[in-house]
Fold this sequence. Notes:
Layout: H1 2-27, H2 40-52, H3 56-65, H4 74-107, E1 112-115, H5 117-121, E2 135-139, H6 143-153, E3 163-165, E4 174-177, H7 186-205, E5 207-210, E6 213-216, H8 220-237, H9 242-253, H10 258-270, H11 274-288, H12 301-314, H13 332-344, H14 351-370
Parallel strand pairs: 2-4
Antiparallel strand pairs: 1-2, 3-4, 5-6
Helix pairs in contact: 1-2, 1-3, 8-9, 9-11, 11-12
Amino acid sequence: MQADNKVASSKGKSRIIELFFALIRCGIGKSNKLPCTPDKEEWEELFSIATKQTLAGIAFAGIGRLPQEQRPPKRLLLAWHSIREKINANNATLDSRSVAVSRNFERLGFRNCILKGQGIAQLYPDPAMRTSGDVDIWLEGGTGKILQYVRRCFPNCKPTYHHVDFPVKEGLSIEIHFTPSWMYSPFRNRRLQKFIADNAGSQFTNTVETPAGTIPAPTLEFNRIYILLHIYRHLFQEGIGLRQMLDYYFVLDKGFTAEERNRTVETLRSIGLLDFAAAAMHVLKERFGLEEEKLLTPPDARRGEFLLKEIMTAGNFGKYDSRYAIVPKEKEFSHFVNSMRRTVRLITQYPGEVLWSPYFKIWHKIWRKRNSPNVKT
Length: 377
């Protein structure tokens, strides 16, 4: 009897996951009907997953495409609508703040680029359906020059290798990036930083239109590398949400030429991301319905299902991952233990990056100490 209950529970969970992705495909315009009609309890579960994965806005758009008989109960629909309105309002606020932050740094002499966020949102059918986060801005000038400016405003700031927090206003989270991302392997990181440096100029001059005005944002070609790398870093650092995967879906959905694909694949190969790209292609094809011609590499089902399991277990930023204890940021050792446990789980998938991670973390701790507030830059 216990075995039968487990089988039934597994089938129920599988059905919910299938329904959830079917709803997301409706939200991005791939379909206008679910494979079957969810009951009240299933709709509650779908609402919970959409919230955990920060895809409530996309899911609500999907509900709007469903036939009347497949829609959720009125009470839940109203709750969903309320969240959708908050997402819409938050996007309007962040659009304005992104424009203001970018222009302010431009006036200060820093060419810049808004990473992810409101730039990526403009790739969505309706930018206001994407759950917004904070403002990530990449400044030109190098770590030393940028830190010198930041410390005039916040003397006690504690930078990491790639960014520093800039808490200029309560309720507005700004991360200033010295570089968009990194790799644990020093050899791959060197090649990555060369790619970033070689392409920086065109990122600072490329612009997109938001409802609040123009902002500099990465090109599609740069984002084909950067957004995938951002997902990869989340897998190692704190967990991935489906929002990040959907961001990448819309980057690739814009298409590319054969020559552009070759350049992207060659760059991914040089920084050791081809296996991860193949895993992402599986998720994007099987769950979001990305067409074959828009895939960068052949999908890898084994790696892809592992990746999907990690995503569905951890939720956005790993907030719902019961495998790791939630600890305050100030408890550095506990954070280190959590990080290493998460990293070791990936040894069979991405051994090169896993094996280099302890060396990077030790080097990074030394780097941070040398760049602490009591050390002049």
